[in-house]
Write a structure and sequence with these properties.
Length: about 325
C-alpha cells in the first residue's frame, strides 16, 4: 500500500540519460550468479548484489571513495536507477561499511593500512627515478574505435618483472578477450628482448629503424596514445593510489580502474551518439518481432521513424 504513494524513478528521471542506457547494456545476471554462492541462505538477508556491484562500478567511473559514492548515490537519481532501484530512495539503503563487508568475502580484497607487498620500481626518469608500488600492464587499441580508445588488457604484475618479459601474457589475455591476436603491436624501448610466441603478431619497438617502412614509422608514432590512457585511470580513476590490501587487492584495483575508464568512454559515447541509440532500439525491436513478440513489424517501424526519433531528441 505504501508503494502507491512513492514515486517510481522512471517517472522522475530522464530515460535518455547515458547511465540509464548503460544500465540496460550490462548483463546484471552475471555478477548475480558470480557473487550469490558467497552468501548463506541462513542469517540476515544479504545485500542486493546489483546495488553493491553498481556502487563499485560507479565508484571507479567517478573516481570516488566509498563514502563519496554513497553520498552521490543519495542525491543522484540516475545512480539509484543504475543500481537497480525502482523507487526513489530518500536515504542510503545500507550501512556505509556495507561495501567493505562485501569486499571482505574475498579474503585478499581488504583495505590496507600497511602494504608489505609494495616493491621499489625503477622509473629511469630524472624527476622520479623510483616509485613504490606495483607494476600494472595496460594495452589499448592504437586506432580509435567509435567510442574512442579502450583498455583491452589490465593486469597487476608482482615481483617487479622486466618489461620485455610481460607482452606475451598480455597478448594472450587480449586474444582471449577479443577473440583473436593482434596483428601488430607497438611498444617502447623498455620492451627489448621481448618474449612473444604468438603466431601472426609482429612487435615493433619505437625508435627502431632496421626493416621499418615509412608506413610502419607513421604507425609507430601513434604509440603515444597509450600515455593518456595510462594517465586518465590514474587521475580520473583510482589507479594512481590503491587502497585495497594484498596482491589480490592490487589485481582487483587494476581491473576495476580499467573497467571504470572503459565505462566512462562508453558513457561519453552514449551521451553524444543519438544515431547509436536509434540503431540500438531498432535492433532490439527487430529481435522482439523475430522471437514472436505480439509487437508487430508495422508497430515497431511506427515507433522508430526518424521523425519520431527527432521529436524525442531535439
Amino acid at each position: 500500500m505504501e508503494e502507491l504513494f512513492r514515486s517510481k524513478l522512471k517517472n522522475i528521471i530522464s530515460m535518455r540519460h547515458e547511465l540509464v542506457w548503460l544500465a540496460g547494456l550490462i548483463d546484471w545476471a552475471r555478477p548475480e550468479a558470480h557473487f550469490a554462492p558467497y552468501y548463506s541462505e541462513a542469517g540476515r538477508p544479504r545485500l542486493p548484489i546489483r546495488l553493491v556491484v553498481g556502487l563499485h562500478l560507479l565508484k571507479h567511473i567517478e573516481g570516488l571513495s566509498d563514502e563519496g559514492v554513497c553520498e552521490r548515490w543519495e542525491r543522484d537519481l540516475h545512480m539509484q536507477y543504475f543500481c537497480g532501484e525502482e523507487y526513489f530512495q530518500h536515504s542510503f539503503p545500507l550501512e556505509r561499511s556495507g561495501m567493505t563487508h562485501f569486499r571482505r568475502r574475498d579474503p585478499g580484497y581488504l583495505y590496507s593500512w600497511q602494504a608489505t607487498e609494495v616493491e621499489c620500481i625503477s622509473k629511469g626518469k630524472a624527476r622520479a627515478p623510483y616509485e613504490f608500488g606495483c607494476k600494472v600492464s595496460l594495452a589499448t587499441n592504437l586506432h580509435p574505435a567509435k567510442g574512442g580508445h579502450f583498455i583491452l588488457h589490465a593486469q597487476a604484475l608482482h615481483g617487479n618483472p622486466y618489461d620485455g618479459h610481460t607482452p606475451a601474457a598480455a597478448l594472450e589475455d587480449i586474444r582471449k578477450i577479443v577473440g583473436r591476436a593482434p596483428q601488430r603491436v607497438a611498444v617502447d624501448q623498455g620492451y627489448k628482448q621481448h618474449r612473444i610466441a604468438l603466431p601472426y603478431t609482429a612487435v615493433y619497438i619505437t625508435g627502431r629503424r632496421r626493416g621499418v617502412t615509412e608506413k610502419i614509422k607513421r604507425w609507430l608514432k601513434r604509440r603515444a596514445v597509450v600515455e593518456p590512457v595510462i594517465g586518465h585511470p590514474k587521475i580520473d580513476g583510482l589507479l594512481g593510489r590503491n587502497w585495497l590490501g594484498g596482491r589480490s587487492g592490487d589485481r582487483s584495483n587494476a581491473l576495476l580502474a580499467a573497467v571504470g575508464f572503459n565505462l566512462r568512454q562508453l558513457l561519453r559515447f552514449l551521451k553524444r551518439s543519438k544515431l547509436f541509440l536509434y540503431l540500438f532500439l531498432q535492433a532490439l525491436l527487430a529481435d522482439l518481432t523475430d522471437c514472436g513478440s505480439p509487437l508487430s513489424q508495422e508497430a515497431a517501424h511506427s515507433i522508430l521513424t526518424p521523425q519520431n526519433y527527432s521529436a524525442l531528441h531535439p
